[in-house]
Inverse folding.
């Protein structure tokens, strides 16, 4: 696709690309019990789902779901983090097919509201520091909270980067999209991060390979705290384990468990400052089973 120099036309031309790389359709919820909280951005209500661990709270994770999906369709992630002792807060973004006003927010309006939603969560639940996490479109949202620089809508007047972010967990973030998120924008990532993808993580109808999902990793400055995780035979949804539970599968459970294991080590290392986890992460570098872990 050719991109116009005119900024207005460029914005209009970007939306099909966003749909191509990010849009997912989800029709059923699958999650453990959660509490729904209603907050507001101006007059716009935002439903926030909250998971509370039974044990002592070790930290906070703010999670952004994929386009068209909802927080309740990420049970493997949220349940794992809660078992580790993290409180999880996740907004229902307006692009969700479960959102009652989704038809009122077309095109890039969803990007504006996503940034607003995460600012809202950070202000209410992230004052003591937090982990920004997300999948697909939500992974981009999380990376921006961690310093990556994407398109800034005119409605966003405060910095998207939040210095209170301790770590970013980005599951299958989009490749660089000219005019929306450039590789140079990804290079501004300022906090430790895990960037995950799989060898079957290829957008339908696209000539782009799964390797584009590693653009955020490839562009990151070498600081020794940015990780890439490539899982063999894993698609965008882990076979329907996350985001699209209506998919027929088969579930890619072995690889999901490997991803959760690596994420737990990275959480312990960078959110809990656990040096034993640092040693374990070093031992896990390279290819182990279906997982290839790199660090830069």
């Amino acid at each position: 696709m050719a991109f116009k120099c005119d900024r207005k036309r460029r914005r209009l031309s970007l939306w099909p690309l966003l749909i191509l790389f990010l849009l997912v359709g989800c029709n059923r919820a699958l999650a453990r019990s959660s509490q729904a909280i209603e907050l507001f951005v101006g007059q716009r209500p935002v439903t926030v789902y909250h998971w509370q661990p039974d044990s002592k709270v070790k930290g906070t994770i703010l999670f952004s779901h994929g386009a068209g999906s909802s927080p309740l369709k990420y049970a493997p992630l949220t349940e794992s983090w809660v078992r580790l002792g993290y409180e999880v807060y996740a907004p229902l973004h307006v692009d969700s097919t479960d959102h009652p006003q989704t038809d009122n927010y077309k095109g890039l309006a969803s990007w504006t509201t996503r940034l607003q939603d995460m600012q809202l969560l950070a202000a209410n639940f992230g004052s003591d520091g937090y982990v920004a996490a997300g999948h697909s479109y939500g992974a981009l949202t999380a990376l921006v909270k961690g310093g990556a620089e994407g398109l800034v809508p005119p409605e966003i007047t405060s910095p998207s980067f939040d210095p209170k972010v301790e770590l970013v967990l980005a599951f299958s973030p989009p490749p660089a999209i000219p005019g929306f998120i450039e590789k140079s924008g990804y290079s501004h990532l300022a906090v430790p991060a895990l960037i995950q993808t799989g060898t079957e993580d290829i957008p339908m109808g696209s000539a782009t390979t799964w390797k584009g999902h590693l653009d955020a990793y490839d562009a990151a400055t070498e600081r020794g705290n940015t990780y890439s995780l490539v899982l063999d035979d894993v698609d965008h949804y882990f076979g329907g384990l996350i985001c699209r539970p209506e998919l027929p599968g088969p579930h890619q459970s072995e690889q999901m468990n490997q991803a959760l294991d690596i994420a737990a080590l990275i959480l312990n290392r960078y959110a809990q400052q656990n040096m034993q986890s640092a040693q374990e992460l070093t031992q896990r570098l390279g290819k182990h089973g279906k997982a290839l872990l790199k660090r830069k």
Q: What stands out?
A: The first strand starts at residue 35 and ends at 41. The chain has one domain: 7-295. Residues 1-17, 23-31 have pLDDT under 50 and may be disordered.
